[in-house]
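Section 3.1 - Work completed
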Amino acid sequence: MYYFVLAVFIGGYLLVQSIVNSPYGQVLKAIKQNEPRAVSLGYNVDRYKVIAFVISAGLAGLAGSLKTVVNLEYQLSQGPLGDWVDPILGAIFVLTVLAFRSGIVGEIQNFMRKNLS
């Protein structure tokens, strides 16, 4: 089992090294040093950032899954509040964050101020 994790780690390390040394990695370095200059050179900075985020999230997910495989003890029923409460609380949290981010809450507050005062 540990040899499998070691092989995946080495593969992930080589993948990251190849990305850093590729033209894509050089653009990320340019964005880090001077983002307006990268924009002026014609690079779609937001696209490069999203791709970097997806790669990092994928590697983090891979690491978490390997930890679960090695431990072999994670079960959904081990949550502190039970099987059905945790997903509901998680959904409420995500929807609240999305509502604040999209400005819906601000619009509701403005509507309430106008109509109730």
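Second construct:
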Amino acid sequence: MVSLHEVEDIMVSELNVSKEEVKIYILLLNKGKMSKTEIVYEIGLDIQVLEKAVTGLIEKGTCIEIYGKYEALNPRFAITNMYKMMCYTNNLEVKRNKTVDQLATLLEKPYEDARTK
């Protein structure tokens, strides 16, 4: 079973996303809607790195932007979208991946907790 402290490394290796994309997605997952300024303040990224990472997350179908605020999509959808994009990009067959399923399940609780505060 995937543990919470392994999430970032697993997302980078299994889903072929950047560490910055993972950090932003996890931040949005845990905190809810945030502006670019709030994200920069929380994780200390350069604004250009942030722009590239947020664009990548939106393109992968993992977060949305509404009125200048970014929000993570439900991990069930977001993690699946990341996995499918990785498969399409690398010409791999999209098939069930146990690690990806466990990752999505693990991240659902923090996602729900952030939306019921």
